[in-house]
Amino acid sequence: MNVLSIAIMLLLARPDSSYSLTGSIEGLDKGWVYLSHVGATPKMDSAKVLKGKFSFSGTIAAPELCSISLSGSGGERQNGPFFFLGSGQSMLTARKDAFSSALISGTPVQEEYLQFAASEKGVRDEGVLKQKAKAFVRTHPASPVSAFALLEYFSYNTNDKELDSLYTPLDGPVRDSYLGLQVKEILRGARLTAIGNPAPAFTQADVNGKPVALSSFQGSYVLVDFWASWCGPCRMENPNVVKAFHQYHAKGFTILGVSLDDQKDKWLGAIKKDGLDWTQVSDLKGWDNQVAAQYGIKGIPMNFLLDKNGVIVARGLTGEELEKKLAELLP
């Protein structure tokens, strides 16, 4: 057998990596559709819409999470749904005035995604949603949708043992995918900040640019509180934190706020307006805040309660939970 024959055989043995996405948009004569690939190196493709039809094609090494958007002839922009792009043929059907409800189908991975989405439909209870995500992940260890499900429901205030029990059984290619590696990073942060562990050390600048080290708070119970001026739920939670601070500060409790702001004036304005009378630090890099990355923060408000030795004794305390925990520790 010659070299050319071997090369052809190897090529034929490789799985087909080509994809196509064709679409039909009712009520739209012309415009543009934009296909955004989510990944380590995000990219966007565009296709012209003529008489309501458009198409994309290319090659793909593995299924990718994508989003799609529409720009009509008048320049108005509509965001469509997220979906999984896999090898083979995908079809989109939508109406011009309801592009957010576009239906995308055709490939096995997208059908799995639709199956997962259907299991969530109409469910509002977070606990039930997490149980449904668990069930899907356990029965689909080879599906990239499982990594998506873990990111969707296990990114915030994560229990490391629970996430590990779901992540480890996934097939290798799923764990090594872009979404799988994001889950791995969340698991790293959850393990690092598990109850009973020493809180990771850090130093960041306060409102006057002076470096503040977490270690300087040893000897007191301290709440490391991640928040931002632009975060509505954080601002709604602040009165509870303020109440706990004033009630227990004299007993040896304090707070170190870590802000995910990127505009100093808004950060300072929120501190004053909400009456946050404790030390605040930030590097003003928004979601790229170095301490937030170190602690694996994927959602705010989020906090960690440390004992006098800097050991994490509780996490994710909201509402009356903080006051109740402090009452146990500082009667």
3D architecture notes:
The chain has a 5-stranded mixed beta sheet with strand order 13-12-11-14-15, covered by helices on one side. A 4-stranded mixed beta sheet has the order 4-1-7-8. Strands 3-2-5-6 form a 4-stranded antiparallel beta sheet. Helix content is 35%, strand content 28%. The protein has helices at residues 3-13, 108-120, 126-139, 144-153, 160-167, 172-175, 178-192, 232-248, 264-274, 290-294, 321-329; strands at residues 18-26, 30-37, 43-50, 53-59, 64-72, 77-85, 88-95, 103-105, 203-205, 211-213, 221-227, 253-259, 279-281, 302-306, 312-315. The model is unreliable at 3-14 (pLDDT under 50). It is α+β, with helices and mostly antiparallel strands and 331 residues long. It folds into 3 domains: 15-106, Immunoglobulin-like, CATH 2.60.40.2890; 122-192, no CATH class; 203-329, Glutaredoxin (3-Layer(aba) Sandwich), CATH 3.40.30.
Explain briefly what this protein structure is.
The protein has 331 residues and is α+β, with helices and mostly antiparallel strands.
What topology does this entry show?
Elements lengths: L2 H11 L4 E9 L3 E8 L5 E8 L2 E7 L4 E9 L4 E9 L2 E8 L7 E3 L2 H13 L5 H14 L4 H10 L6 H8 L4 H4 L2 H15 L10 E3 L5 E3 L7 E7 L4 H17 L4 E7 L4 H11 L4 E3 L8 H5 L7 E5 L5 E4 L5 H9 L2
Parallel strand pairs: 1-7, 11-12, 12-13
Antiparallel strand pairs: 1-4, 2-3, 2-5, 5-6, 7-8, 9-10, 11-14, 14-15
Helix pairs in contact: 3-4, 4-7, 5-7, 8-11
